[in-house]
């Protein structure tokens, strides 16, 4: 009986490992567990799974700065510090460049967290210290990554392949009256940043296309399809995004306009769109138990079943028109000699 229970449940009692069966096998694009399930800071609990063996490389000063500040600006727990720093240094903001502002905030945030740790003001100071110190000067690079149900590959791996896995899209805030804009690009590198205490953050380094120019860079046709001029690259220093911010697209060559590609959005594997039925007032209680199917038509009327003759064969004659007698042809075609 114990043996049967082990086989049915798919659990080994020797090592505590699961037995792979068709009932518990992982999906192809399974992201795995969180990197740190009980992380005190959300940025250290990203979902995702790297593919293949990684290789280490050093970060340049610019890469370290841009990666560090991007992680800080996209961490929910750092937002109060950003607001405080912006209010206190509002007068000097116009006099500094973007890199100078970023460098100044990094130094201020590091000192701020150190003071909090000394005074014991926040229980999360251990994680905040790791975050404020920034990533280590080396990172681990991967060729593939699974996140949000998508399987990504870097551009170098896509070259020569019939499939595309390097197309990336992300929503970004541009301000100037426009809340959000969707950016499209190509995945160049997958970096895993390492922090003190064994904490990690995964970033995508991308090449972005110029979507700010609505005439020469990107356009939307009358059918709602987006086309991108892949020859126009966006001039920006922000090449990094968090891995879990990425959605996947692929690009189809436009045969009419040279250099333009049509953007096709992909759907995550094993994710199905369920129809959304809005709440309607005065619902008929007689139909509450009926099954609802999206796009179902209720105006279709079935034709009456045909009558049967003595041989139980259907009679498909019409009663609403006069009968037409068709005489078979008696002429025979002559064979060619």
Automatic annotation (TrEMBL):
This is DUF4216 domain-containing protein. InterPro entries: DUF4216. Pfam families: DUF4216. It comes from Cuscuta campestris. Residues 191-263 form the DUF4216 domain.
């Amino acid at each position: 009986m114990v043996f049967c229970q082990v086989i049915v449940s798919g659990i080994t009692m020797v090592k505590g490992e699961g037995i792979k069966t068709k009932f518990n096998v992982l999906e192809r694009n399974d992201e795995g567990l969180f990197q740190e399930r009980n992380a005190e800071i959300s940025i250290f609990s990203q979902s995702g799974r790297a593919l293949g063996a990684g290789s280490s490389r050093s970060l340049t000063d610019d890469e370290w700065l841009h990666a560090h500040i991007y992680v800080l600006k996209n961490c929910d727990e750092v937002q109060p510090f950003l607001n405080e720093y912006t209010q206190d240094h509002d007068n000097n903001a116009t006099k500094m460049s973007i890199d100078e502002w970023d460098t100044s905030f990094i130094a201020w945030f590091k000192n701020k967290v150190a003071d909090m740790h000394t005074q014991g003001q926040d229980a999360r100071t251990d994680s905040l210290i790791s975050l404020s110190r920034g990533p280590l000067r080396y990172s681990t690079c991967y060729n593939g990554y699974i996140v949000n149900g998508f399987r990504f590959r870097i551009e170098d791996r896509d070259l020569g392949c019939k499939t595309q896995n390097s197309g990336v899209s992300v929503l970004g805030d541009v301000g100037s009256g426009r809340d959000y804009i969707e950016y499209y690009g190509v995945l160049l590198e997958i970096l895993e940043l390492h922090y003190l205490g064994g904490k990690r953050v995964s970033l995508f380094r991308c090449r972005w296309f110029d979507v700010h120019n609505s005439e020469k860079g990107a356009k939307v046709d009358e059918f709602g399809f987006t086309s991108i001029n892949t020859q126009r690259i966006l001039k920006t220093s922000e090449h990094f995004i968090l891995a879990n911010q990425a959605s996947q697209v692929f690009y189809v060559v436009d045969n009419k306009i040279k250099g333009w590609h049509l953007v096709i959005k992909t759907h995550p594997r094993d994710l199905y769109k369920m129809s959304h039925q809005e709440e309607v007032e005065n619902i008929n209680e007689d139909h509450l138990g009926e099954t609802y199917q999206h796009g179902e038509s209720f105006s279709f009327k079935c034709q009456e079943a045909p009558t049967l003759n003595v041989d139980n064969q259907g009679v498909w004659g019409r009663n609403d028109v006069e009968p037409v007698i068709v005489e078979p042809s008696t002429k025979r075609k002559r064979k060619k000699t």
